[in-house]
UniProtKB/TrEMBL annotation:
It comes from the Eukaryota. Serine endopeptidase which is involved in the processing of hormone and other protein precursors at sites comprised of pairs of basic amino acid residues. Responsible for the release of glucagon from proglucagon in pancreatic A cells. Residues 378-514 form the P/Homo B domain. This is Neuroendocrine convertase 2. The gene is PCSK2. It holds the Pfam family Peptidase_S8.
Amino acid sequence: SRAQLGFVISCVKNVMEQEGFSRQKRGYRNINDIEVNMSDPLFTKQWYLINTGQADGTPGLDLNVAEAWQLGYTGKGVTIAIMDDGIDYLHPDLASNYNADASYDFSSNDPFPFPRYTDDWFNSHGTRCAGEVSAAANNNICGVGVAYNSKVAGIRMLDQPFMTDIIEASSISHMPQIIDIYSASWGPTDDGKTVDGPRELTLQAMADGVNKGRGGKGSIYVWASGDGGSYDDCNCDGYASSMWTISINSAINDGRTALYDESCSSTLASTFSNGRKRNPEAGVATTDLYGNCTLRHSGTSAAAPEAAGVFALALEANPNLTWRDMQHLSVLTSKRNQLHDEVHQWRRNGVGLEFNHLFGYGVLDAGGMVKMAKEWKTVPERFHCVAGSIQEVHKIQSGNKLVLAITTEACQGKDNFVRYLEHVQTVVTVNASRRGDLNINMTSPMGTKSILLSRRPRDDDSKVGFDKWPFMTTHTWGEDPRGTWVLEVGFQGDEPQRGVLKEWTLMLHGTQSAPYIDQIVRDYQSKLAMSKKEELEEELDEAVERSLKSLLSKNN
């Protein structure tokens, strides 16, 4: 009726034509919006390079290579060696970047590291790793390498009935003035009951590499942390837990740890492997044998070459980086991003650096690393200090933790004084009725707890134990080592066990100056002070509110 219409009109205060505009979900990125245009057919499926949510992944969870590429860094002038089962160097996506002069076959003793043919393509491992690093860009073939203008060398050394110390040592020390980075996606058996590491010749080769390689700047060794999952601990792998290697773990495309990932305190950082869901495009896209491509590369095998590619970008940005500079850059620029795990939470060490027992200091950030590398000044000289040693026999029993302490001045007043930590080694000799049930933790003077050894349910050893085994942690990076270190040794498991600890020697490795750590500490303390101030203000507000309520109730 007219009366009703008049009532509606009288209620309308204002009429305004609405104009449509855009709103976007934060964190979501369309691959077409990123100014990286590649003609390679698998590029859009390489979610670990640029993650826009492909294959049910988490947008933004990637290596941030786009930023490094846009800054002009693509790995030019850097050679990465893939120590593996050979490389299909005739592959059209690898041939232009293949460095024949730096390649060798130590399995067959010839300069042609082509993989041995098998019906099941078992020897595709090295070719897949090579593509992750150095697959050429914009050639309409497969995908793109992290450092697509770098050179890749093939060192074939895995494909023989058994390994020898001399083959490993020869591979690790091959062409150290031409090869910049060595990528290794192998190690002792990941069966959850093996404790093994490099033998004498290989140890010497690695020591020579970091001291003499690259004109004295040091060869960079990148190691996959291992695929033994929760049954194993990568601190029982002497390659991944070495101070001379950069141990890399993997995350999947939604930020969780892969089911096969091993955890340990020696892991420095993480990259990516396949997704946990059975999405056919959730694997790592790369080159495959005989000119083919694959979407199914996976494991921490896939993680180490990605890291080698990121390090190649950093070396192009600053060719003067030493092997230790690369470790410092990894610690400082790796990001938590969206990595998470139900068991191992993110924590901060005594100087405020955030770390995780599974992921190390986080996922490598190529853009952040090249920007910091450009301005980076070589870290100060490294010193080693034996902080203390306990040689007495101590019994360990189920239900009772053995707690030992070493108080140290970190060689203060001596030439080898260590003020800022890099690596810390706990050299332990211990035997147990069941080695796999042993659990070892260590707490630094600044309160940082490192899990040096987790339970390994498949390890039934009752005879060998650990003989002067160097458990290593990177979690106290940058801390002041002076004070009391506490070691806790106990058993986990259903059955009662007993053991004997015969030695604990604490080895500190680090520098006497590290200006950037002081700044990190100042920033961290400032944030702590601010958060405490906010907590006090909240407590004050709550107290005032309680008082007001009390007064009101009395007045009523």
